[in-house]
C-alpha cells in the first residue's frame, strides 16, 4: 500500500511516525528490545504527549533473525497465526559498542545503530544485504485506520522473486503485490497461492509473518526499497540468511515447515475425466483401455467434480445414475494397477444431505447474526466447512476415510480461495486472517486423514490454494490456465515463483484447462508436463486423451511418459532433497547458477533437479531459444553437445525438447520405463557426463520410502576415471557418455554403444578406466 505522494510528500489524510531517537536498548535471553521516540528528545518534556515505537530483535533458528515492531502492545491478538518452528537449543551472541549493538545468529547479523538516529542493518557473512533506517519503518494512521509499514533496502541490480505462485513477470521489481488469495486463473495479478515470502538475488529472504493481507511495494513506491505493510498495531518479519540461495530456502522451510515426500507412484502420468464432460464407468474404461491399447503407461486416474451428483457438491457420494457400483469399479481399476484420485472441495451445497447436518451441528461458517453464511456462486446455497471446529474436522475427515476404504488413494483439494471476511468462526478466529489461512486448515485436514490411514510417504494432495506453510502438504497445481502458448509460459512463471517460495512440488494442466488446444500445443505441453514434478492431463469441456488430438500425440505422450519413468531414480533423489532442504524439484535457473547474472532473468527454462536443463517450446515453429550456462552440456535425447556460456537457438520436432545434462553429472537411469514406482537400484545405469579433471560426481539412489539405498561416485584424475558403487548387491552398470573407447578398463567388461562406453562390473563395486 502506498502512503506517500511521490518521494517527498505524504498522501493527504495520512499521518506517519518513524523511529528516530533510541531512548533505551535492553537485552534479555538473547532478545534485543529497542524503545524509540518518533521525534528527537532534547529535554525531558519532549517525552510527553508523544509516540514510542518498540522493535524487538531475536532469532528462532540459526541464520534467521526476527524483527517485531509494536506501537500499542495491549491490542488483543486474535489468530490464526502462521506456525513457525523454533530451535530450542539455538543461542545467539550480542556485542555492544558506543554506536552499535549487534546480534549474531549463525552467519547472519542484525546491527542496530543507536546514534545519531535509529538504523538497522542485516549483514550476511560479513556483507550487508539489506537494512532499514530513518523514515523506512513507520506507524501509519489514515482515516481512522492504522497500519505498520517497513521498507528494506533494495540494492543496485538486486532482483526479487517469489511471493507465491505469481503469473506476472518473474522478477517482482516494480510490482505491487497484495498477498490475498483469489480465484483469478493464471492470466492476471491475482493468485491462488499467496506467500508473504520473497527471495533476493543478493542472497537472503524476507518472510512477513502475517496471514492477513500484506501489501508489498517492490521497488515501486520507492524504487530503492521493498516496502510492505499490514493493518494494525504491529508488524513482524524474518530476515532469512544462508551461504547460498538454496541455503536460504532450507532455512525458510526449517522455519515454516518442510515438504512431505509424495509417494513414488504420484510422479507418473495422471489422466482425468476432465471437468464438465459427460462420463460414466464405460467412458472411464474407454480411456484406460485406449491408453493400454496404444502402450501408453498410465498410473493415476482422477475423477473430477461430476463423480458426485450435480448441485450436491460435496456430499461425498458417487452419483448412482453414472456409477451404480463404485466399489466394484474402483476394485476393477485398481486391478489394472491404477491409483485413484477424486475431486473435493470444502463447500457443502444446500441440496447436499450434509448441509442440514453441518448446519445443525455448527460445522459450517456462520454470519455475525448466527445464521450460516451462504451464497450461490459455484454451488447453489453452499456453505463453508469451519475447520476451526475440531468436530467439523473430524466429520469432514470421516467422509474422506469412507472413500479411502472404497479404494480412493488421494484427493484433489480444489478451491479454498473465495473465503468471506464478513463471518464468524467457531474458535473466534479473525476472518481477515482466515481468508488466506483457511486453505492451510483445509489442506492439513485432508493430508492428515490420508497420512493417518495410508502411512507416512503415502499421503499426497492435488491442491490449488495455499499460503505460507502449505508446502508441508504437497502437491500443488497451477490452476485454470488456457490452451495457448501464452498461458503455458505464464504457468511456468507461476511454478518457478512458487518454487522460490518454499514449495518443492508443482504441476499444471497439460495442454491448458480452458478450451481445447490444437495438436501442436498439446504435444509441446506434453513434453513440458512430463518433465515437471507431477504430470496431469486435465481440461474443462473436452477430454485430454491423446488420440482425440492426432496420432502423433499418442507417440509423443508415450515417449515422454516412458522417459520420465526411466528418470525416476534421479527424480526421486531430488524429491527427497526437496523434503530435506526445501529446494524445489523444478528450479529457476538463478537458484542453480546465482553467480551467472544472465540466469537471474530466465523464466522460460528451468533445471529439473540440479543436473537437467529443460527449455519448453512456446511456438508453432518448433524454435527453442534458451541460455546454457558455462561448461559442456549434453542432450539427453540425442547425445549432441553444446559449449555453454551463450544463448542457443534450435529447431525441435514434437518428440524432442532441449533437455541438457549438466557437465560433471552422474545420472542414475532406471531399468523400468513403464511405471514410476519400482526398485530404482535394481539394474540401474549410471550415465557419466563430461567429468572434468579433478571433479567428482555423485548419485544417490533411494528406495520408495525415501531411504538411501546405494551411492555411486565417479572421480577423475588426469586420464583416469574411477567409479565406485556402495549399498546393494543388485546389478548395476555405467555408461561413459561421449567416450567411445578406453586404453584400459579394470573391474568391468566394456562395450561400445551409440551413447558411449558401457561398463558392466565383473566383480566388486569399483571400476577404473584409463582413457
Automatic annotation (TrEMBL):
Glycoside hydrolase family 31 TIM barrel domain segment(s): 259-573
CDD domains found in the cross-reference section: GH31_N (cd14752), GH31_xylosidase_YicI (cd06593)
Entry superkingdom: Bacteria
The keyword Nucleus is annotated on this UniProt entry: no
Span of domain Glycoside hydrolase family 31 N-terminal: 55-217
Keywords noted in UniProt: Glycosidase, Hydrolase
SUPFAM superfamilies, alphabetized: (Trans)glycosidases, Galactose mutarotase-like, Glycosyl hydrolase domain, Putative glucosidase YicI, C-terminal domain
Residue span, Glycosyl hydrolase family 31 C-terminal domain: 582-666
UniProt signal peptide: none
Family: Belongs to the glycosyl hydrolase 31 family.
Identification of the protein by name: Alpha-xylosidase
Species for this entry: Paenibacillus glycanilyticus
Amino acid at each position: 500500500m502506498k502512503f506517500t505522494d511521490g518521494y517527498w510528500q505524504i498522501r493527504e489524510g495520512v499521518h506517519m511516525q518513524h523511529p528516530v531517537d533510541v531512548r533505551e536498548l535492553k537485552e534479555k535471553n538473547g532478545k534485543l528490545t529497542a524503545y524509540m521516540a518518533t521525534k528527537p528528545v532534547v529535554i525531558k518534556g519532549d517525552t510527553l504527549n508523544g509516540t514510542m515505537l518498540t522493535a524487538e530483535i531475536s532469532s528462532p533458528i540459526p541464520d534467521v533473525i526476527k524483527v517485531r515492531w509494536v506501537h500499542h502492545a495491549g491490542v488483543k491478538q486474535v489468530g490464526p497465526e502462521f506456525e513457525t518452528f523454533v530451535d530450542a537449543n539455538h543461542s545467539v551472541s550480542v556485542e555492544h559498542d558506543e554506536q552499535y549493538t549487534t546480534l549474531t545468529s549463525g552467519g547472519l547479523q542484525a546491527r542496530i545503530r543507536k546514534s545519531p538516529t535509529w538504523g538497522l542493518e542485516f549483514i550476511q557473512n560479513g556483507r550487508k544485504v539489506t537494512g532499514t533506517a530513518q523514515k523506512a519503518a513507520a506507524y501509519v494512521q489514515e482515516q481512522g485506520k492504522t497500519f505498520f509499514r517497513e521498507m528494506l533496502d533494495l540494492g543496485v541490480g538486486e532482483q526479487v522473486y517469489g511471493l507465491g505462485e505469481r503469473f506476472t513477470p518473474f522478477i517482482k521489481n516494480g510490482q505491487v503485490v497484495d498477498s490475498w488469495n483469489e480465484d483469478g486463473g493464471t492470466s492476471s495479478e491475482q493468485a491462488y497461492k499467496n506467500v508473504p515470502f520473497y527471495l533476493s538475488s543478493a542472497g537472503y529472504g524476507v518472510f512477513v509473518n502475517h496471514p492477513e493481507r500484506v501489501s508489498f511495494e517492490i521497488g515501486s513506491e520507492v524504487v530503492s526499497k521493498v516496502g510492505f505493510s499490514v493493518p494494525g498495531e504491529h508488524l513482524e518479519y524474518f530476515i532469512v540468511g544462508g551461504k547460498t540461495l538454496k541455503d536460504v530456502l532450507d532455512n525458510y522451510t526449517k522455519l515454516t515447515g518442510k515438504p512431505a515426500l509424495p509417494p513414488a507412484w504420484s510422479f507418473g502420468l495422471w489422466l482425468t475425466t476432465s471437468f464438465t464432460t459427460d462420463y460414466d464407468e464405460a467412458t472411464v474404461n474407454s480411456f484406460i483401455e485406449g491408453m493400454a491399447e496404444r502402450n501408453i503407461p498410465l498410473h493415476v486416474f482422477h475423477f473430477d467434480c461430476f463423480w458426485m451428483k450435480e448441485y450436491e457438491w460435496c456430499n461425498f457420494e458417487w452419483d448412482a445414475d453414472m456409477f451404480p457400483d463404485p466399489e466394484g469399479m474402483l476394485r476393477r481399476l485398481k486391478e489394472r494397477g491404477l491409483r485413484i484420485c477424486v475431486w473435493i472441495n470444502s463447500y457443502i451445497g444446500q441440496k447436499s444431505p450434509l448441509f442440514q447436518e453441518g448446519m445443525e451441528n455448527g460445522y459450517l461458517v456462520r454470519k455475525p447474526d448466527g445464521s450460516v453464511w451462504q451464497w450461490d456462486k459455484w454451488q447453489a446455497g453452499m456453505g463453508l466447512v469451519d475447520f476451526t471446529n475440531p468436530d467439523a474436522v473430524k466429520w469432514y475427515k470421516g467422509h474422506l476415510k469412507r472413500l479411502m476404504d472404497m479404494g480412493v488413494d488421494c484427493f484433489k483439494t480444489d478451491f479454498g480461495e473465495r473465503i468471506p471476511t464478513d463471518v464468524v468462526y467457531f474458535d473466534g478466529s479473525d476472518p481477515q486472517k482466515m481468508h488466506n489461512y483457511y486453505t492451510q486448515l483445509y489442506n492439513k485436514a485432508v493430508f492428515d486423514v490420508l497420512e493417518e490411514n495410508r502411512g507416512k510417504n503415502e499421503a499426497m494432495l492435488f491442491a490449488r490454494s495455499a499460503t505460507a506453510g502449505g508446502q508441508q502438504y504437497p502437491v500443488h497445481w497451477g490452476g485454470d490456465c488456457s490452451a495457448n502458448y501464452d498461458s503455458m509460459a505464464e504457468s511456468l512463471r507461476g511454478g518457478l515463483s512458487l518454487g522460490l517460495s518454499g514449495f518443492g512440488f508443482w504441476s499444471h494442466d497439460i495442454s491448458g484447462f480452458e478450451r481445447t488446444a490444437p495438436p501442436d500445443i498439446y504435444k509441446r505441453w506434453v513434453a513440458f508436463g512430463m518433465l515437471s514434478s507431477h504430470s496431469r492431463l486435465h481440461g474443462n469441456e473436452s477430454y485430454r486423451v491423446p488420440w482425440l488430438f492426432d496420432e502423433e500425440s499418442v507417440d509423443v505422450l508415450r515417449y515422454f511418459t516412458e522417459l520420465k519413468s526411466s528418470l525416476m531414480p534421479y527424480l526421486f533423489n531430488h524429491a527427497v532433497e526437496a523434503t530435506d532442504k526445501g529446494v524445489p524439484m523444478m528450479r529457476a535457473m538463478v537458484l542453480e547458477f546465482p553467480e551467472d547474472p544472465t540466469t537471474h532473468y530466465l523464466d522460460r527454462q528451468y533445471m529439473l533437479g540440479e543436473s537437467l536443463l529443460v527449455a519448453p517450446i512456446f511456438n508453432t515453429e518448433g524454435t527453442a531459444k534458451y541460455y546454457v550456462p558455462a561448461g559442456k552440456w549434453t542432450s539427453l535425447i540425442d547425445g549432441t553437445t553444446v559449449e555453454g556460456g551463450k544463448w542457443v537457438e534450435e529447431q525441435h520436432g514434437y518428440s524432442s525438447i532441449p533437455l541438457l545434462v549438466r557437465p560433471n553429472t552422474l545420472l542414475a537411469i532406471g531399468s523400468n520405463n513403464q511405471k514410476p514406482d519400482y526398485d530404482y537400484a535394481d539394474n540401474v545405469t549410471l550415465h557419466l557426463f563430461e567429468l572434468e579433471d579433478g571433479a567428482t560426481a555423485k548419485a544417490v539412489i533411494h528406495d520408495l520410502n525415501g531411504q538411501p539405498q546405494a551411492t555411486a561416485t565417479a572421480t577423475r584424475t588426469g586420464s583416469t576415471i574411477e567409479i565406485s558403487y556402495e549399498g546393494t548387491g543388485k546389478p548395476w552398470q555405467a555408461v561413459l557418455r561421449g567416450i567411445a573407447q578406453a586404453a584400459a578398463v579394470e573391474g568391468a567388461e566394456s562395450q561400445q554403444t551409440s551413447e558411449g562406453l558401457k561398463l558392466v562390473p565383473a566383480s566388486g563395486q569399483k571400476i577404473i578406466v584409463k582413457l
